[in-house]
């Protein structure tokens, strides 16, 4: 069974700082890995999707990397802004499975 | 192209009543997933459906819960005889054929009183 872990559980940084969120998974046989953000009381917004054959994906100030062999993915946020404050979730889809396995998230607060 | 639509957004039911949660996937998406999120907990898989088929219901409680995705209309998650422990946010995600990429709705927040 796939286990997905996110560290740290909570992070507080001053505005403008670059930061890295970590996601690890126990089974490297993944189809893809997807990063989401969730605002309080809201649904999940997809940020980036990395296919198993890819090493990274970029969108604006966000960059996600994937290292299947070590079971890790990172989400890099450049020049953080207060509007980035949210919970960030990663989800791995197993290559032979039928579901997205979610981590418990990193709660990010960017202080103005 | 509208996103995944879930309704109602908030639902209050008394213990013992039935709850029906609806999910309309994005246009052209034929795969639907249902997840449950409890306060301070992660998202837990419940069921994966394709049109007219339940593919994987390994995360569904054995009793009181059922799901369907008919040929026409939205996917329905049905909870019979609700109990306080069913109070949670229920999220639906859709995915296009051949691509395991999830697009989530805004969720239905069920409160059982």
Can you walk through the features of this model?
- With 112 residues, chain A is mainly beta.
- Chain A contains no helices and 11 strands.
- Chain A has strands spanning 4-7, 10-14, 19-25, 30-38, 44-51, 56-59, 62-67, 72-77, 86-94, 100-102, 106-111.
- In chain A, strands 2, 4, 5, 9, 10 and 11 form a 6-stranded mixed beta sheet that branches. A 5-stranded antiparallel beta sheet of chain A has the order 1-3-8-7-6, with no helix packed on it.
- In chain A, a hairpin with a 4-residue loop joins β7 and β8.
- Chain B has 113 residues and is mainly β.
- Helix content of chain B is 0%, strand content 52%.
- Chain B has no helices and 11 strands.
- Chain B has strands at 5-7, 10-13, 19-24, 29-37, 43-50, 53-56, 65-68, 75-79, 88-96, 103-104, 108-112.
- In chain B, a hairpin with a 6-residue loop joins β7 and β8.
- Chain B is globular.
- The N and C termini of chain B lie far apart (36 Å).
- The A-B interface holds A 31-32, 34, 36, 41-46, 49, 89, 91, 93, 98-105 and B 6, 33, 35, 41-43, 45, 48, 55-56, 58-59, 91, 93, 100-107, 109.
């Amino acid at each position: 069974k796939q286990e997905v872990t996110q560290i740290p559980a909570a992070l507080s940084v001053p505005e403008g700082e670059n930061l890295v969120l970590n996601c690890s998974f126990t089974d490297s046989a993944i189809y893809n890995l997807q990063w989401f953000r969730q605002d309080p009381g809201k649904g999940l917004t997809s940020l980036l999707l990395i296919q198993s054959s890819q090493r990274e994906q970029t969108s604006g100030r966000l960059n996600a990397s994937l290292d299947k062999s070590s079971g890790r993915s990172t989400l890099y946020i450049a020049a953080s802004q207060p509007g980035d404050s949210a919970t960030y979730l990663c989800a791995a889809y197993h290559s032979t499975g039928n579901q997205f396995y979610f981590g418990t998230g990193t709660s990010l607060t960017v202080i103005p | 192209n509208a996103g995944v639509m879930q309704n109602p957004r908030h639902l209050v039911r008394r213990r013992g009543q039935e709850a029906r949660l609806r999910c309309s996937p994005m246009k052209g998406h034929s795969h639907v997933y249902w997840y449950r999120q409890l306060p301070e907990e992660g998202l837990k898989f419940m069921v994966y459906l394709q049109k007219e088929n339940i593919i994987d219901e390994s995360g569904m409680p054995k009793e009181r819960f059922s799901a369907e995705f008919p040929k026409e209309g939205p996917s329905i998650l049905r909870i019979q005889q609700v109990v306080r422990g069913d109070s949670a946010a229920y999220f639906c995600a859709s995915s296009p054929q051949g691509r395991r990429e999830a697009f989530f709705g805004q969720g239905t927040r069920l409160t059982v009183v």
